[in-house]
Structure formats: structure tokens, C-alpha cells
Amino acid sequence: MAAPSESSESTVASYWHVVKDSCSAAFVGGFVVFTSASAGGWRFVLKGGTSEDNCLNQAGDHPEGPELFRNVCLNGGTEIAGSGRYNYLEESGVYRCACCNTPLFPASTKFDSGTGWPSYTSPVEGDVIGYGKDLAALLSTEVRCTTCGAHLGHVFDDGQGETGYRYCINSVCMIHDATLQLPAARSVPYVANAYLFLVLAIGALVGSCRFSWRATGVIKAVR
Known about the structure:
By secondary structure, this protein is α+β, with helices and mostly antiparallel strands. It has helices spanning 6-37, 66-74, 194-222, and strands at 44-45, 94-97, 103-106, 110-111, 119-120, 129-134, 140-145, 151-156, 166-169, 174-177. The protein has a seven-stranded mixed sheet. A three-stranded antiparallel sheet has the order 3-2-10, with no helix packed on it. Helix 1 (6-37) crosses helix 3 (194-222). The model has no long low-confidence stretch (mean pLDDT 90).
């Protein structure tokens, strides 16, 4: 059998360069599109939370104690699964921000997700929830109170109801108000699947490195 010619080997090498470049471009393009179109846009969060100066309610007055309130609501932490006082509460009303009292979630959208944290399909109407990509949580979508900036939890695309989303919220970040009734938002921002988004982010990083390496090679060749 005749050995492959240099021209055929060069053709195969060129073909694989095209395939690799195309995959790199697809990952980078997909990451840009998903980031721009999904909740939070290009807001990346390293650490959620806010200053206690933005709170109307003092940490020392919180029924679950100042340490847990500061750790989760103000510093972006997470309470232990199953430990929250609202995990199994089924009363009507509205859940307010524990920091500034802004109404956040109607009790009518609450459901048992089996995760150990209170879960909701959507917030109340209005611009009450802010979003961002949580770097520490592998690019899951972090949610916060837009009024005071307090960390609330995360939202995922594995919920139920009309939105199909699960707003997974820490109990310590909320106060239940049984006297108020508010309608749920009819539409919410698109939430990208966290695993898909992470794959796109890794692929985009590798693709960007490849393009940088290729560009460096071209520049050296020109020189």
C-alpha cells in the first residue's frame, strides 16, 4: 500500500483546522448569544449580597438571628437545606424581602420542589427581582432584591407552572406577610440551563484561546 502523500496529509490537516475553528466559533458565538439573551445579561457575580446600610430591618431584629441573616442575605451565602422556617409553609399571602420589606413572591406560586428550600414559579409583578451569573455557583443564575440588593437565592429551569422555572430562595431572606395579596408576574426573563451555559462558557474559553494562538501564529508568519 502506498504511503499517504504530503499533499493528502496537508489536506487532512487543513480540514481539521477548519473543523476546530468552526467549533471554536460556534462555542464563542453560542456563549455570546446565551449570555446576552438570558436573565442577568453580562452581569457576572463573584459574591452576592448588599450592605446592611441598605436595609430597613436591622440584622439584630431578625427572628433567625443576625449571624445567619448577614451570612446569607447580606453576604451571598446559603442556608442549610431543610432548615428554613418557610420551607413547608403553605399559608396564603406574599413573601417580602427580609432586608427592605419589598414584596417579592406571591404565596400562590410556591411549590414543594423537594430541594429543601422554598421554591416559587415566579415573582410578583414589577421589576422586583434582579439577576446575575454566579461565578462561584458555576454560572447558575443568582437572584437578588432590586430595591436593596440583598441576595435571595438562585433560579433554575427545572421548575413547574407556566414559567417552568424554580426560584430557589433562602427562607432567611424573606418575611411572610399573610395580610397582602399580589398577582404573579405573567412573564419572566429567560433563564438558561446552568449545565448548558457552563459547557458553552468552557468551550468559549477554549475557543478564544485557540483563536488567540492562531492569531499569534499569523502575526509571526507575517513578520
